[in-house]
Design goal:
- It is built from 13 helices and 32 strands.
- The protein is α+β, with helices and mostly antiparallel strands.
- Among the domains are: 114 residues, no CATH class; 285 residues, Alpha/Beta hydrolase fold, catalytic domain (Rossmann fold).
- The N and C termini lie far apart (57 Å).
Length: 643
């Protein structure tokens, strides 16, 4: 029995799940060679399924690996469920179905360095241990079993289809083939395959599965006897409202049919269907209701406002409902009402200290990018904003943020990015533009979206053209570094954990996982869409380092020496390049800190220095000592701090 995995009884007491491990060979110890003469080295081979750094990161996991096994108390049989070929088995002791799902990525571990996500899917008989492969080389997100175990189901990204496997019939079912809707992310803009919008769940008896497209909910009969039904009658798409089923969690985690409290029990289609909605036009949100899930019906809007609604919870035997609501200006509070939501009553008053703070406001702004695309973003304004005055403005960004209009943002020390309430309370405008990408041009895409957005705000007359700052972290840090090679619009810039040189970063290792970084550039966020040897110019043209001589904007870099996502060397390359060119550049390195700061004392320190930096350039504040003198190794050794 594996000592690192806790045995668990099924809820009905009929099965005991535990893990087993092969007995390892006895270690041989070299007692003849002195320790200082023992060879310590690694061997990397081109046939390694996982690179040495990843093996090291997973060493503890591999040494403690166990294979799921079940003991049937009635028959007295011990049945191995997992093995070396199918090492991962998804099970839940609360759901005592005959079959469980097994997953194996073993055949695809080499290619996972540049093309992750491939796996084989198995159906495993708990009574016999027999394994049947039901899907080969799929790119699926979290395959699951229906509540009663009649179907396995998943979204196959390669074909953009929801699929199921009928356990009884032993055949695959294409659930969404031929439906007049897109179940994959319509706004997907990376060079890999788009994922799904998700599933609401299964109805009682595994009769139907409810699936999301961008706006609506579809009911699909896996047996094929009934035609697919758009439960929300396409109301979401007609009105550009993203509808999602509200999970009214009125059962405790030990209720029959629940999966460890993380997945709700089967949907009763006869009950009222509560929904949450996001109106794309103005980013308002609300709660809606439809009569039931037995027919296609336009939902009725019960509540809609410029808030974020979530956490709906209904009493088991009453019409009482509670929910959370908040936005940028109003902290998240708990409300109680009935199923009409007509007269909600506020139960809590979170963060009363905020009442005395000059918090400011936020609004949606729109403009046209250099590439002709219609874009949106957020503009945060100080309290008592006067459109006749000129304000300094900080631009912060990370892909798309317009839908966070109604998110509450608490003031806190910075782990890596500016704190918006702090900035607004201290007289800054803060602009957060959305970015839309194409393959192969992430840097130009950022420029084409961000700079026109800033210029559109300058045209309004209340932004001081000579007091513009830009800040980003990680992917945002890279884009900040790139943008200042293209424009002198900004008077000061801060880039946290920036990639400066895509050619040197491409083949590097992500320290936090041990994975080679190739997949990121070819398939995901960096969006180059090909290898370094296929698209060398794309890697060079999108790398700020190769255009460092064009930079005229003073730059502050944060590049921590234990960063497991972006190598510290990337910050060094950018800093040393600008330093040689005689450009004003500073780099703060927090020792033993990772990608984002975890120590609160370090977060406070970064906040002080970052706002001193921006205040100096954008608000004519005195230059801080550390910007004039730095901090020597001797001063660090003495514990001397400079601000």
């Amino acid at each position: 029995m594996n000592e690192f995995r806790e045995p668990k009884f099924a809820d009905d007491g009929k099965r005991l799940y535990f893990s087993t491990s092969p007995i390892p060979p006895k270690p041989t110890k070299d007692t003849l060679t002195p320790d200082d003469e023992k060879v310590r080295m690694d061997i990397w081979t081109w046939t390694d399924t996982r690179l040495q750094p990843m093996q090291q990161r997973r060493l503890k996991e591999e040494k403690e690996r166990g294979f799921l096994t079940v003991y049937d108390l009635a028959s007295g049989k011990v049945i191995p469920l997992a093995n070396r070929e199918v090492p991962t088995v998804a099970f839940d002791p609360k759901i005592n179905t005959r079959y469980v799902l097994g997953l194996s990525d073993l055949p695809y571990q080499v290619q996972a360095s540049w093309d992750p996500g491939h796996t084989d899917l198995y159906l495993i008989d708990v009574q016999t241990g027999e394994k049947k492969r039901i899907a080969n080389d799929i790119m699926a997100s979290q395959p699951k079993l229906s509540p009663e175990g009649k179907y396995a189901y998943w979204f196959d990204e390669r074909d953009s289809l929801w699929r199921a496997w009928s356990v009884m019939d032993g055949k695959r079912i294409d659930l969404t083939r031929g439906l007049p809707s897109k179940f994959f992310d319509e706004e997907h803009d990376t060079p890999n395959l788009p994922g799904a919008y998700g599933a609401a769940g299964w109805t009682t008896g595994d009769r139907h599965v409810w699936l999301y497209d961008r706006y609506d909910i579809w009911q699909v009969d896996p047996s094929g006897r009934e035609k697919p039904l758009n439960l929300t009658a396409s109301w979401g798409r007609k009105n550009n409202v993203r509808l999602r089923r509200a999970e009214l969690d009125n059962e405790d985690d030990d209720a029959p049919g629940r999966r460890g409290g993380s997945v709700e029990k089967a949907i009763d289609p006869k009950t009222e269907l509560f929904l949450t909605g996001i109106w794309e036009s103005d980013k308002s949100t609300g709660i809606l209701k439809s009569k039931n899930g037995l027919s296609a019906m336009d939902p009725a809007t019960l509540s809609r406002s410029n808030h974020r609604y979530f956490g709906l919870n209904k009493a088991k035997n009453a019409s009482t409902i509670t929910f959370y609501k908040g936005n940028y200006q109003e902290p998240i509070n708990l409300f109680v009402t009935d199923t009409t939501l007509a007269t909600p009553k506020q139960l809590t008053h979170a963060n009363p200290q905020q009442d005395s703070i000059r918090w400011g406001s936020v609004e949606i702004v729109k403009w046209i990018g250099t590439n002709g695309i219609k874009l949106e973003g957020l503009l945060f304004k100080p309290e008592g904003f006067d459109p006749k005055k000129k304000y300094p403005m900080l631009t912060y960004f990370y892909e798309r943020n317009a839908e966070t209009l109604n998110d509450y943002r608490a003031p806190s020390p910075s782990r890596s990015t500016i704190n918006i309430p702090y900035c607004v309370s201290n007289g800054y405008l803060v602009f957060i533009p959305d970015i839309v990408y194409t393959t192969g041009q992430p840097g130009p895409n950022a420029y084409d979206c961000i700079v026109p957005g800033v210029l559109s705000l300058l045209d309004k007359g209340f932004v001081d053209r000579d007091r513009l700052g830009i800040q980003g972290q990680s992917w945002g840090g890279y884009q900040t570094a790139y943008i200042i090679t293209r424009t002198n619009l900004f008077r000061a810039a801060e880039a946290g954990a920036p990639v400066a040189n895509m050619t040197s970063a491409y083949g590097g290792i992500r320290g936090e996982t041990g994975m080679v970084r190739q997949f990121q550039y070819e398939k995901t966020q960096s969006r180059i869409g090909g290898t370094l040897w296929e698209k060398p110019m794309n890697y060079i043209e999108n790398s700020p380092l190769f255009y460092a001589d064009r930079v005229q904007t003073p730059l502050l870099i944060m590049s921590n020496d234990a960063d497991g996502a972006v190598p510290h060397q990337q910050g060094i390359e950018l800093f040393t390049g600008l330093r040689r060119l005689g450009k004003p550049v500073w780099m703060v390195v927090y020792n033993s800190e990772g990608h984002n700061l975890t120590g609160r004392h370090n977060a406070k320190d970064l906040s002080i220095r970052m706002y001193q930096f921006f205040d100096y350039y954008l608000k004519d504040a005195p230059v801080p000592i550390w910007m004039k003198e730095g901090r020597s190794a001797v001063e660090k050794d003495r514990g001397e701090m400079k601000y």
